[in-house]
Amino acid sequence: xxxxxxxxRDGEAQTDPYSPEYVVPSGSFPELLTLAxxxxxxGLPAGxxxxxxxxxxxxxxxxxxxxxxxxxxxxxxxxxxxxxxxERKEWAFREQEIxxxxxxxxxxxxxxxxxxxxxxxxxxxxxLQYHWQNHQKAKEERIKKVHHDCALMLRKLIAQRKNVMGxxxxxxxxxxxxxFASQAYAPLSRHGYFPDNHAERYVVRSFYLDTFAGLCxxxxxxxxxxxxxxxxxxxxxxxxxxxxxxxxxxxxxVTLEQVHQ
Length: 261
Description:
mainly alpha; two-stranded parallel sheet; single chain; Cilia- and flagella-associated protein 91
């Protein structure tokens, strides 16, 4: 009345088929005992190869039953001839089995070689793709450099074409000072201008800053509100009582002011 549930499937818990014990009567040899070497997973359930083996064993037992008795010289010669014929037949069958086994091994070897060749081809393709990408990057860099050099040469040609005859042009001061990229605002080093030289000329030197008398004179010239700062204490936003509490009227006034704003 109680059901149980395990963590395994029935197929995972299935054991080998049960083989009951048996007793062989004296004087009898059942054909089923010839298959005692077969077990579950090792020949059972029987396939085409096992069926051929069973048929071949039956033929051999029938052939052994038909062998002549060894009671005369003619029967002995006949028996030896039949045994030689059977031995050749078994050797031929064994050669066929060897050939089949060799064919299977050859097929497995072909598959392994084919798989190895496919892996090698994939590796070669990957390497070729890697080299192709590197060449493409180098090609793009060269093309970019060619475009940059082309634009540079075009700008030079345009600048040379403006003055083809090499005539001297007068300096246009107004044009120079209206163009913030001109030599007046941004002189170039290749034209003989070095901004790091004579940097001390930009230092501010004044009598009012370098001497005490100048500082006193500068201070005397300044108005009183610059030197004499007057600060006023801020008025509190709330009207407080002597005990420090905010009055209700003051709080309402602040709230009304905020609402009005």
